[in-house]
Amino acid sequence: MNAPAVINEFAKMRHLKVGVFGLAMVVAVVALALFALVSNPDVDLGDSSAWNALLAGMSLGIPLVSPLLLAVLASRQTDMEHQGNGWLLQATSGLTPGGLCRAKFMALGLVVAVLTVVQSLLVLLAGKVLAGILPPAPLGHWAGFTLCMLAVNLVVLAMHILISAKVENQLVALGIGVLGTLLAVFSQGLPPVAAHLTPWGYYSLALAADYDVSEYVTLPLAYPSIAALTLVAALLFTVFTSRFDRQEA
């Protein structure tokens, strides 16, 4: 890891309103999770299914919010290199285009990891303090859900960094982000086999809870599938950024 390059990417974020977009992501997911709880009069705060309502809200909120905002974050972080010929400038200082992409992923990935964990903890805290859910929270399932959503978020982020680096017109990257949002949401109604076909479909495989007939129920998390996605994505990201290293800046 090129630590100075990663630090430089954090410095660039100060001018890109990353904090504003990150706050929007957290607020939107937390609001959707709480809405799922308060909008259903059948939810009993004295029953453990109330936690499932919050998990179901996050399971919908994250796919609805994250794909587009991740595309925006990756696009803004990468577009400055196209605008200011930063690829060539960094290459003259010894940092290859692929190395720069990896530095961007390390910096943005840390931000996305913090945002994903924070929104999960805020929903957990809101359920206990604001809503007053009495039974103990299912911390194991909650942590597994957070980890799965984080993995998918990082995969989508890595993909958008590659797209934004390769295609100068950032409207293409943002358009793919909009398409990804639609695929992430509609994949929840598709068979699991179809959900495996796109990175955004894996959001539905990390569905932690859903409404069934008259109550919210816990759903199993597809740990093997999401682990496989993470490994394949890491391999492909390494291969593609290595190819960038061999191209002219």
Describe this structure in words.
The chain is mainly α. It has one domain (about 5-245). The chain is built from 10 helices and 2 strands; from the N terminus they run αααααααααββα. The chain has a two-stranded antiparallel sheet with strand order 1-2. Strand 1 (about 210) and strand 2 form a beta hairpin. The mean pLDDT is about 90.
Name its key features.
249 residues, transmembrane helix, transmembrane, membrane, mainly alpha, ABC transporter permease, 10 helices
Q: What's the arrangement of secondary structure elements?
A:
Blueprint: H1 3-13, H2 18-38, H3 49-83, H4 86-92, H5 97-130, H6 139-166, H7 170-186, H8 192-195, H9 202-205, E1 209-212, E2 215-218, H10 223-245
Antiparallel strand pairs: 1-2
Shape: elongated
Q: With helices defined by DSSP (H or I, 4 residues minimum), what is the helix count? A: 10
What is the spatial order of strands in the main beta sheet?
A: 1-2
- Residue-averaged pLDDT, rounded? 89
Structural class: mainly alpha
Rounded to an integer in angstroms, the radius of gyration calculated over CA atoms is 19 Å
Instruction: Give the N-terminus to C-terminus distance in angstroms.
Output: 20 Å
Low-confidence stretches: none
Q: Approximately how much helix is present in the residues? A: over 70%
Total number of distinct structural domains: 1
Number of extended strands: 2
The secondary-structure element order is HHHHHHHHHEEH
In short:
With 249 residues, the chain is mainly alpha-helical. The protein has helices at 3-13, 18-38, 49-83, 86-92, 97-130, 139-166, 170-186, 192-195, 202-205, 223-245; strands spanning 209-212, 215-218.
